[in-house]
């Protein structure tokens, strides 16, 4: 079966099957930022943004997103230029092994889009569904806070 | 595996009835169970397009569509105002990603003894509306569950709506949950409390507990003890012992009998003390 889905702003026609998970479809099509982690909705490494909401792509069948719009990490830097959140992660040293990073950055994006200057508590809530097994949460939280502060300066 | 995407309830009902037919609501449990080879569905009925995502006021009642997400419930002014005990519970549920997908109907249908929406729905004495080709029926939530993962839903039925009465201003409530940690946790024990307060006297008390039996249960004897009692430290001390005797928890991967018993008493005590102190503060 074929589905039509807007990925990172580009309308795509993709071949899939009723039982294929969105995670598998995206990876098969080269969106490798979508990580295969626990595959049971716990770790958040496969997070994507679906119609503005953070969801886990291992818990969605691909045909369910037909006609919808999704964003993966690739969509944040279409021309290879780093997104401010990515830059903040680099500058704060918020990346260790990097496996959780795409999900973390998307969780941060959903938060910052709604709330450009989040408190530490709001940041922790926003990333509560994303596990970092290097346990580098301190720097991740700092990086997200830094984006908020940078945005503030630009205003 | 065949997936049906019906556009209305009538069409959806025509696909139900088969042995290996499963309903897809939020998918947060179903898709994991398929991946784990825990179930092998022959067909799946995706009920996303049935417009069952709503929260409405109807006179003294609140009607919640089965497909309403946990996040929508949490953000709802109506739920926050008229069913604060439910609002509090959904605020303690899952990760942002799960809250965006998971639905109230799914949380009920899965029949986990630790389901977070269920103890508050017990206290609200919610009715669950089921539809089938044979018609529709309403079942009280207290009669809905028959065991872990088991309920009274027939193969040709599915949950369309959850209905409960608005809470009123003389009603007091609390919801307490203990897990391994704060975020993304499955309850070791949860307790929802509701009742009416006049002065310091309690009435119409209802207490429901999660994760201490094969289904969510009412602690009826404990509630009866509190009815028409004045809230004092002594009463609270006594009732926190009664609840420990009333429940029959088990030891499992998440917790032990002893811990669950003690915590049932502690959670009830904590909640009742909070109510008592706020009454005293208001009166002085």
Could you give a quick summary of the protein structure above?
The complex is a heterodimer of chains A (155) and B (284). Chain A has 155 residues and is an alpha+beta fold.
Indicate the radius of gyration of chain B in whole angstroms: 19 Å
Oligomer: heterodimer
Largest interchain contact: A-B, 27 and 26 residues
Compute the number of structural domains of chain B.
2
Computed structural class of chain B = alpha+beta
The biggest beta sheet of chain A reads:
5 strands, mixed
Strand residue content of chain A: 5-15%
Task: List low-pLDDT spans of chain A.
Answer: none
Query: Mind telling me which CATH architecture of the largest domain in chain A this is?
Result: Roll
Strand content of chain B: 25-35%
How is the secondary structure organized here?
The complex is a heterodimer of chains A (155) and B (284).
Chain A lengths: L1 E6 L2 E6 L6 H7 L18 E4 L2 E4 L12 E3 L12 H8 L9 H14 L5 H7 L10 H18 L1
Parallel strand pairs in A: 1-5
Antiparallel strand pairs in A: 1-2, 3-4, 3-5
Chain B lengths: L1 E3 L4 H6 L6 E4 L5 H6 L7 E4 L8 E4 L2 E5 L4 H6 L1 H6 L1 H8 L4 H6 L2 H6 L8 H6 L3 E6 L2 E6 L4 E3 L2 E2 L6 E8 L5 E8 L10 E10 L2 E10 L6 E2 L1 H7 L6 H14 L10 H27 L1
Parallel strand pairs in B: 1-3, 2-3
Antiparallel strand pairs in B: 4-5, 5-10, 6-7, 6-10, 8-9, 11-12, 12-13, 13-14
Helix pairs in contact in B: 9-10, 10-11
């Amino acid at each position: 079966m074929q589905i039509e889905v807007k990925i990172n702003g580009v309308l795509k026609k993709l071949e899939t099957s009723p039982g294929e998970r969105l995670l598998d479809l995206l990876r098969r099509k080269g969106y490798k930022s979508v990580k295969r982690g626990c595959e049971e909705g716990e770790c958040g490494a496969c997070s994507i943004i679906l119609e503005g909401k953070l969801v886990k792509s291992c818990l969605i069948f691909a045909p369910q997103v037909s006609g919808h719009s999704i964003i993966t990490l690739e969509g944040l830097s279409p021309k290879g230029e780093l997104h401010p959140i990515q830059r903040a992660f680099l500058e704060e040293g918020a990346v260790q092994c990097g496996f959780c990073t795409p999900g973390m950055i998307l969780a941060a994006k959903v938060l910052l889009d709604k709330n450009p200057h989040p408190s530490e508590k709001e940041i922790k809530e926003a990333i509560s569904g994303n596990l970092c097994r290097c346990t580098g949460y301190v720097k991740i939280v700092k990086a997200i806070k830094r984006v908020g502060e940078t945005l503030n300066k630009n205003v | 595996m065949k997936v049906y995407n019906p556009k209305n309830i009538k069409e959806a009902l025509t696909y139900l009835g088969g042995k290996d037919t499963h309903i897809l609501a939020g998918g947060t449990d179903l898709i994991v169970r398929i991946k784990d080879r825990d179930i092998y569905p022959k067909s799946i009925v995706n009920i996303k397009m049935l417009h069952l995502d709503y929260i409405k006021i109807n006179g003294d009642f609140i009607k919640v569509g089965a497909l309403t997400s946990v996040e929508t419930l949490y953000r709802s002014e109506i739920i926050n105002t008229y069913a604060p005990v439910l609002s509090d519970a959904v605020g303690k549920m899952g990760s942002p990603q799960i809250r965006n997908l998971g639905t109230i109907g799914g949380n009920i249908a899965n029949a986990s003894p630790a389901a977070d929406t269920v103890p508050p729905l017990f206290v609200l004495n919610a009715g669950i509306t089921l539809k089938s080709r044979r018609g529709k029926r309403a079942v009280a939530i207290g009669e809905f569950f028959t065991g872990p993962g088991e309920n009274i839903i027939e193969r040709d039925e599915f949950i369309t709506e959850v209905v409960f009465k608005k809470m009123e201003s003389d009603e007091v409530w609390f919801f307490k949950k203990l897990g391994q940690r704060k975020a993304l946790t499955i309850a070791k024990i949860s307790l929802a409390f509701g009742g009416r307060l006049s002065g310091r006297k309690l009435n119409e008390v209802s207490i429901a507990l999660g994760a201490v039996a094969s289904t969510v249960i009412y602690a009826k004897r404990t509630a009866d003890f509190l009815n028409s009692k004045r809230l004092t430290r002594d009463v609270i001390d006594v009732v926190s012992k009664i609840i420990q005797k009333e429940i029959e928890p088990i030891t499992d991967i998440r917790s032990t009998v002893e811990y669950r018993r003690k915590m049932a008493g502690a959670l009830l005590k904590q909640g009742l003390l909070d109510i008592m102190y706020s009454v005293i503060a208001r009166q002085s």
